[in-house]
Design brief:
Layout (H helix, E strand, L loop, with lengths): L9 E5 L4 H12 L3 E6 L4 H9 L4 E5 L5 H15 L4 E4 L14 H29 L2 E6 L12 H21 L4 E8 L5 H7 L1 H8 L11 H10 L11 E4 L3
Parallel strand pairs: 1-2, 1-4, 2-3, 4-5, 5-6, 6-7
Helix pairs in contact: 1-8, 3-4, 4-5
Length: 245
């Protein structure tokens, strides 16, 4: 049976060109949402997938770590739809770099994409949610925040920052009917992670889990669908680790 829990919702997803972002776009569209797919590169593949399935979709090219470009996204959503119901902050960068080798430019770029972009997208779209007294904001963090793996100082700083931002923002906007949550997947077999980690290290990580396989994009989708639904109205300020235990 067709699930209409997201029917006619306006959903903005960042980092939508591939991987988890693309999977979330497809899942939301399948449940009836009108998806705005945002990516630093043109999200042509995601747009094509949804158009081939007969789903309404708009693709936008924007660097969501840049204030001017996120403002333009917000202006487009306002002018085109007059509302925003769902924001999924999925854009992110992954890399393994020893702290002694980490350059300041890389530190700044990772924090800008993984953390600052969440603030900028919320700033651009939260006013629409407040005005309609309904909204769902879900941001990607990572279960690596509890990891002892070396080479993740920049990554963990950005992801823990996202958890803090989620908790604080949830308290501020609850009175407007807006919920704010985070989802922390384990390493997923997506191109960026595979290139950064390598398949052997990914397989080693899988053996540390209760469910011993490397996650894929579909393992995150179910949690995302719940948190962006009407049924999650009493869930806010939380971080859900979808990491196979």
């Amino acid at each position: 049976m067709f699930d209409r829990s997201h029917q006619d919702r306006i959903a903005v997803v960042t980092g939508a060109g591939r991987g988890i972002g693309q999977a979330v776009c497809c899942a939301l569209a399948e449940r009836g949402a009108r998806v705005v797919a945002v990516d630093r590169d043109e999200p042509d593949e995601t747009v094509a997938l949804l158009e081939d399935a007969g789903r309404p979709v708009t693709g936008l090219c924007a660097d969501v770590s840049e204030p001017e470009q996120t403002e333009e996204v917000g202006e487009y959503v306002q002018a085109s739809f007059g509302r925003c119901d769902i924001l999924v902050n999925n854009a992110g960068l992954d890399s393994l770099i020893d702290s002694g080798e980490l350059q300041y430019a890389t530190w700044r770029r990772v924090l800008a994409v993984n953390l600052v972009s969440q603030f900028l997208m919320v700033k651009a779209l939260l006013p629409l949610m407040k005005s309609q007294c309904w909204g769902r904001i879900v941001s990607l963090t990572s279960n690596s925040v509890g990891s002892t793996m070396p080479g993740l100082t920049h990554h963990m700083a950005s992801k823990l920052g996202g958890i803090g931002f989620t908790r604080a923002l949830a308290n501020e906007v609850a009175g407007f009917g807006v919920t704010v949550n985070a989802v922390g997947p384990r390493l997923s077999r997506i191109p960026g992670v595979v290139s950064a980690m390598g398949p052997e290290l990914l397989d080693q990580v899988a053996q540390l889990q209760a469910i011993k396989h490397i996650g894929d994009t579909g393992d995150v989708v179910g949690t995302m669908l719940f948190l962006t639904s009407e049924e999650a109205a009493f869930v806010t300020g939380q971080t859900f680790m979808t990491d196979g235990g």
